[in-house]
Design brief:
Helix content: under 10%
Distance between the termini: 136 Å
Shape: rod-shaped
Strand content: over 45%
Number of helices: 0
Structural class: mainly beta
Number of strands: 27
Low-confidence stretches: 224-231
Mean pLDDT: 91
Oligomer: single chain
Length: 300
């Protein structure tokens, strides 16, 4: 039996204070690891941790990070920047909130029967390329809304030809070309929907109206219509610009030229193979009648 003495030993602990966040412990001894987490703040985005107590953070840019406790009380601070809302009508943005000066990328949605036209905003947004489906802008210091705008698409149907586009918007120029079948020559274009730049040209164009359009290419046979005995003459050139000639016909025969609507436009009482001047005729389809033969030709 003997008297005994026992001793309680201690280490120093120091206070941990966190501004705009929390720590996993409030008092810590030197050398211990402390974990801190930034608070969620409305309309703000965490940027980094700072401290005036010479704290070295494992990752100062991470919302949750750690540091080693020094032999002193410490205060650490979570820092934030203001962020603003990005709303997009008929499209998407690469971020829903952005800080002033950040670049935001927006992309227009696909809409059936419509073609993207441009980006608009009532918030004085300056788009990098407002007519591109995907573009960017610099975020101002306020909530903003941007919208993608569209134009209606109209279809083009062509019988006997093709266009450089199958659908387009009002006012656009459409180029068309006739697909001439073997044994025929192009006569003209017909449509009640459009006004052609040249209805008598194999290749022409028109300005798209605000409706779907239907177009037809008219062709005629490139040989004469046979007579009862099967005799066929030859008309050339075809198409023609200034004159036409006939070969394989009898001498001193009457020749008559008719327009496509049946009007007599040229009469020759006695034809003997000479060139027939057609410069007075308007461009279009005409028919040369020689006895019981009919020769179609195109005046350019």
């Amino acid at each position: 039996a003997a008297n005994v003495t026992v001793k309680a030993n201690y280490i120093d602990v120091y206070n941990v204070s966190v501004e705009s966040g929390t720590a996993d412990k409030q008092q810590v001894s030197e050398g211990e690891t402390v974990t801190v987490t930034a608070a969620e703040m409305e309309a703000k985005r965490f940027t980094n941790w700072t401290s005036e107590d010479n704290i070295e953070f494992a990752d100062p840019a991470a919302a949750t990070t750690t540091f080693t406790m020094p032999a002193a009380n410490v205060t650490v601070k979570a820092n934030y920047i203001d962020v603003y809302n990005v709303s997009v009508e008929s499209g998407t943005a690469d971020k829903q909130q952005a800080a002033e000066g950040e670049t935001v990328t927006v992309t227009a949605a696909e809409r059936e029967g419509e073609l993207f036209y441009r980006w608009n905003s009532g918030d004085d947004i300056l788009f990098d390329q407002p007519y591109n489906k995907t573009t960017t802008f610099v975020m101002p210091a306020k909530d903003i809304q941007v919208s993608a705008t569209y134009e209606k698409l109209y279809t083009i149907e062509i019988e006997g030809g093709h266009a450089d586009v199958s659908e387009t918007t009002f006012g656009k120029i459409v180029n068309i070309t006739a697909d001439v079948p073997d044994g025929y020559i192009f006569s003209k274009w017909e449509s009640s929907d459009v006004l052609f730049s040249d209805e008598n040209s194999l290749e022409t164009s028109f300005s798209m109206p605000s409706k779907n359009v239907m177009i037809k290419a008219i062709f005629i046979s490139d040989v004469a219509i046979d007579d009862a005995e099967g005799n066929i003459g030859i008309l050339y050139p075809n198409p023609a610009y200034d004159y036409v000639c006939l070969s394989g016909t009898a001498e001193n025969i009457p020749v008559k030229i008719y327009s496509a609507d049946g009007h007599l436009v040229i009469t020759i009482e006695k034809y003997n193979g000479e060139s027939v001047n057609i410069t007075s005729l308007l461009p279009g389809t005409y028919y040369v009648k020689v006895e019981n033969k009919t020769f179609p030709f195109i005046k350019k």
